[in-house]
Amino acid sequence: GCELTASTKSYTFQVDEKDDFDHILALSVVCLTDGAKDECNVVEVVGRNHENQEIAVPVANLKLSCQPLLSLDNFKLQPPVTFRLAAGSGPVHLAGWHRIMHREDASFEEDDDDLSEDEEEEKELAPIMPAKK
């Protein structure tokens, strides 16, 4: 986890890109902590898109009196990523987990050759039917 405040407005999570591992960072909770004022605290995630351009996306807008905590249900990100307090003075605490997988073991998909006939039938999508009026 990390904490964003008026004096520490950003935190960057980096990994060694030269290693032979895939990294996943997942955000679980963003919450205001002791000493927070009743003001809007906007937390942004800054990363890179598929064209390697920097992109900032707000993920939380917290206010002590109405929403001091937000569950992000393990919102997955690919490092490097920066968390930035775009508005407010915090303190805002971010918590989550970091998973490291060896690239050779990171295959999440099964080979189609390994599927039985029943599994192949289940894999086909049902046709789309018109809505009943």
TrEMBL record:
Keywords: Acetylation, Chaperone, Methylation, Nucleus, Phosphoprotein. It holds the Pfam family Nucleoplasmin. InterPro entries: Nucleoplasmin (IPR004301), Nucleoplasmin_core_dom (IPR024057), Nucleoplasmin_core_dom_sf (IPR036824). It is found in: Nucleus, Nucleolus. One of its GO terms (cellular component) is nucleoplasm. It comes from the Eukaryota. GO terms for molecular function: chromatin binding; histone binding; RNA binding. Its main location: nucleus. GO terms for biological process: chromatin remodeling. Residues 107-123 have a biased composition (Acidic residues). Residues 105-133 are annotated as: Disordered. The keyword Cell membrane does not apply. Residues 1-99 form the Nucleoplasmin core domain. Plays a role in the regulation of diverse cellular processes such as ribosome biogenesis, chromatin remodeling or protein chaperoning. Modulates the histone chaperone function and the RNA-binding activity of nucleolar phosphoprotein B23/NPM. Efficiently mediates chromatin remodeling when included in a pentamer containing NPM3 and NPM. Interacts with NPM (via N-terminus). Forms a pentamer with NPM at a ratio 4:1 (NPM3/NPM). Two pentamers form a decamer. Belongs to the nucleoplasmin family. This is Nucleoplasmin-3.
